[in-house]
Amino acid sequence: MIINLMINYIKAKYELRASRMVLGQVGLFTLRSFSSGETVIPNSNWDEGYLIPWDEFKLIDESTKRQLIYFCYKTEEGVHAPQDINKLNIGYFVNHSCDPSLIAVEKGDYCAVRDIGIDEELTIDVEALMEKTIFSFECHCGSLKCRKTVRI
What is the Cβ-side half-sphere exposure of residue 14, based on CA atoms within 13 angstroms? Predict the structure, then answer.
């Protein structure tokens, strides 16, 4: 018999759904509103403590490389990745926009750049997150600030 002792269980803040911005992809949507400056996705959710140096990165299979390029932080030293690329945190599914709703702050939290309403697709400028560019893709964010090409 299971006894429910958690009366104040933590409420869901977001969910994955079909992206409204990127056809055929998923996006992360809000289930509640967030105020400007509020932490939306805390740094503690991230696991990028495993450094894959560039010389080792070259030896990885193409499918895994693609996931590492799309989802992980890249520096001159290499790719900062989770120990297991198959265990991506929900925050990895925030799509790019040249006019984002989120920004990464100094300690690694993703914070609201402006007030964010319920049912909004969360976005971040992924190009601004990267120190090293090894890949680029065509941007379809639709914002007036769109740069047309994103370099990650």
Answer: 23
State the Cα–Cα distance between residues 28 and 110, nearest whole angstrom: 13
Q: What integer pLDDT is reported at residue 140 of this predicted model?
A: 86
Q: Is the pTM of this model over 0.85?
A: no
Spatial separation of the C-alpha atoms in residues 48 and 46, rounded to whole Å: 6
How far is the C-alpha of 55 from the C-alpha of 32, rounded, in Å?
43
Q: How far is CA 54 from CA 44, 132, 134, in A?
A: 26, 11, 11
Q: From CA 72, how far away is CA 80, in angstroms rounded?
A: 6
At residue 116, the pLDDT reads 98
List the domain boundaries for the chain: 14-46+89-151
Helix (H, G, I), strand (E, B) or coil at 127: helix
CATH number of 14-46+89-151: 2.170.270.10
Residue with tokens 């055929």: 24
CB 44 within 8 A of CB 63: no
